[in-house]
Amino acid sequence: MTRLLVAIVIAVAGVIDPAITLSGASCARIALVTLRSAPPAADGIRERLARDLSASYEIVPQLTSDAAAAIVIGDRYPDRSDWPERTDAGVPGVPDALRIATVTTAETAGSGVRIVRIDSPPDVPPGTAIHLDVEIEGRGVAGNTTDVTASVAGLETARASHRWTKDLERWHAALEAVPVGDPPYVVRVRLKPDTTETTDGSGRTVEAGDSETPVVSGFSRTMADVVVDVRRDPLRVEFYDPRPSWATTFLRRALEADARFRVATLSSIARGVSAQTNGAVPPGDPRLEGFAVVIVGGLDRLSAADARALDRHMRERGGAVVVVPDQRIDAGPARDLVFGDTGSGSVRRQPDLAERLLEQPAKLTVTAPAASLQASELLVLRSLPPGSDIVARVPGSDGSPVIVSMPRGDGRLMLSGAMDGWRFRASDSAAFDRFWQSAIAGLALAVPPPIAVSVDPPILFPGERGEVTVRVRSHDVGAVSASFDGDQPIRLIPAAEVGVYRGRFVARETAGRSTVEVRAAAAQPLSASRTLLVQPDARRLRATTASSLGLLSASHRGIDVTPEHLADLTRFLRGAVTSPRAPLVRHPMRSTWWILPFALCLSAEWWLRRRRGLR
After folding, report:
1. How far is the CA of 77 from the CAs of 92, 315, 383, 568, in angstroms?
2. How far apart are CA 533 and CA 521, in angstroms?
3. Diameter of the chain by CA atoms?
4. Contact 239, 248 (CB under 8 A)
5. pLDDT one-digit tens code per residue, 323-348
6. 361 HSE (CA, 13 A, CB side)
7. Which of 18, 222, 234, 278 could lock onto 262 through a cystine, CB 3.0 to 4.6 A?
8. How far is the C-alpha of 395 from the C-alpha of 401, rounded, in Å?
9. pTM score, two decimals?
């Protein structure tokens, strides 16, 4: 009888089909896209990458809205016709938060060393070094050494050296150039020795591998000028504390000691009593848009209305919010702010946030040249949303993220898990102050202003035509006008992107400085300007097809590699993309193995009944 009951239970369970929900690591999705314009060799590259990554990631052939990262294989920057098919995000645009790596398949003729790309900020606060990221490619120069220098006003202020070990290799050099003279600063980046170009008697540049074809003077592959202006407005930061917190108190003192910041504070001391300085406003006040970064402490007293207002500040304003907890975030508005709705109709996967207490303070692993940071009470995250940047990790083989910057709409949210880092603020020559000054400055400089102006190219030859691009964040603006040197109107034409206008102008025939001024009519009129230089001896990078695809990865926090360096790409993805934890639904009764105990129980019951003479 017991065997019959077991068989009946198995049959009933199979009809009901119960589901069991477990929590486990899901497989992050990687989009592996081959452009239509890519050469036939791209198919072999795609197969190799799919083989190497399929064990850790789910590989899909096109961009999707839920992809954690993407790899694009091709020989040029993609346009609408290059994509294999329409993506979820639209073509040719892709989500800004999506991390994209590229594999450039084009070959460059000749041998030597050339500058592929230079990334520089449009402006820096006074007294701040200019950080330059220079990507350099070497072909056929194995065993040689190349120096890259950065000079301002004729004075060399930064230098880096690299010894080439392969016939085809790329080197990423980080330079910190010191501003010298009056702004805007012209930073000349140059390779030494110049292995790919010479100058003939007429002053024209001749490059190796080009059949001795002269190149127009001013364009080069081993020398380039970038223009960096001075940011005249201070970086506005507000501290908002629903209750007093030591974690934000010492962080505020670190920023107040830095002349680049203008710090405002709104702190609740007791019920109905608060302290306010430098025009600080509550999170729900529209004037909060005037602050680039909002730093929040005392999270257990944060209200739901405050959390929603801070979320709008990131999504709509494009601002940055820094969350500085002094205890574990278990529930409430603070957790909703950090791990809440993505704003796209889906709920963000809940990260594995754990508290870790150490007997001795640990020096966190940070990205150079950031200062070190120590802490013993940590909140670590084991899974991150796509587009996140890890600022500091647990040292050693664990490497769990402690301080993380995550995308939130058009802005960023930084979560600091170093809860007691302020206790060790005096260690290592006040590294605590230097770390946070650098981290907050980076967040503030990345926040777009209400109206931004860019000029391409920033250094023009006399009489050359330039293009100005204006981006207005507010949608409640009227007419937008621009002028060149105050007396030459620039006709601005709206672009396909909302709030973007483009126009063209002609540089003056004489060398010197010029200014593009832009005004926008609004409730509070907006204005901005950009200083550019007209120089007959300007040096600009000579554009190449092979380097253009790298612009896609550079704008999406990825890397650009050649087919010979696919191993670097896989290592980059494994470090940048982690498998998120998600609920997994299992149906145990759907296993075909259940038929064995079911048949065994029925057969045993039938055999025993026959032995007893029963039917």
Report:
1. 10, 29, 32, 21
2. 28
3. 116
4. yes
5. 999 888 877 898 888 886 534 334 44
6. 15
7. 234
8. 10
9. 0.64
